[in-house]
Specification:
about 20% helix; 2 domains; six-stranded antiparallel β-barrel; alpha+beta; single chain; Thrombin, subunit H; about 35% strand; 4 helices
Length: about 240
């Protein structure tokens, strides 16, 4: 039995139907996001920064996000291991670059804790971005959708999505045991310090480390510092 070929008119109508269905699906998705009170990644990424430190001989790259410090001033939260050297001193030439900004702003470490792996940076210029709201990490649930934003592989800010694997996992790293959020969102070099966001666009964690196994064969196991720990760190340094 011979297969009948579509006429040009039939092919044109088929293309129109596909386009109409695609547009309808996109409209439904956007409507669902608006109804659920979700914040788009495009809104959140404006409050995320690339963080760099060191010189050609000892470069360090990471990510950070805008928060309010203990005195209500805009600052950048990031991982201590991004901006603190092996001797426990701030790295030289620390700089931040917010999304959409074509230049780097010098910054200084205003507070840090190596055990918690949290650092707060004070930019030398006013930050033209809204701070991310710190959510309640105690309210996370298994399988909850999350997004991470960071300077993955040093290629610039990008967004990755996944889910909460374990809301609060007990993790021992470099001799320090602490509770962290386990997620299947990939974490690459340069992504440390970036925010882990819930569907409302709240920062419920800070991407920090990943588990790769003894033979580097494990994938999809990353850990984030809970937002409650970040909030406590900031509040303890007020004034």
């Amino acid at each position: 039995m011979r297969r009948r070929l579509m006429s040009k008119r039939e092919a044109f109508l088929a293309i129109l139907c596909v386009a109409a269905v695609s547009a309808l699906c996109a409209d439904v998705s956007a409507h669902h996001l608006a109804d659920s009170g979700g914040a788009s990644a495009g809104d959140s990424i404006r409050s995320v920064a690339e963080v760099g430190a060191g010189g050609p001989s000892d470069p360090a790259a990471g990510s950070g996000f805008v928060v309010l410090d203990g005195d209500g001033r805009k600052a950048i939260a990031t991982n201590a291991h991004v901006v603190i050297d092996a001797l426990g001193a701030p790295r030289r030439d620390i700089r931040v670059s917010l999304f959409g900004c074509d230049r780097c702003i010098p910054a200084e470490v205003s507070a840090f804790d190596r055990d918690l792996d949290i650092a707060i940076l004070a930019p030398s210029e006013p930050v033209d971005a809204d701070p991310l709201k710190l959510g309640d990490s105690r309210m996370l649930s298994y399988g909850e959708p999350v997004r991470a934003i960071g300077n993955s592989a040093g290629l610039g800010l990008s967004v990755a999505s996944g889910a909460v694997s374990v809301p609060l996992a007990l993790v021992k790293h470099k001799g320090v045991e602490r509770e962290m959020i386990q997620t299947d969102v990939s974490l690459n070099h340069g992504g440390s310090g970036g925010p882990l966001l819930n569907q409302k666009g709240e920062a419920i964690g800070m991407m920090t480390l990943r588990y790769v196994g003894s033979d580097q064969s494990v994938f999809g196991v990353s850990y984030a510092i809970p937002s409650d720990a970040i909030r406590s760190f900031i509040e303890a340094r007020a004034g």
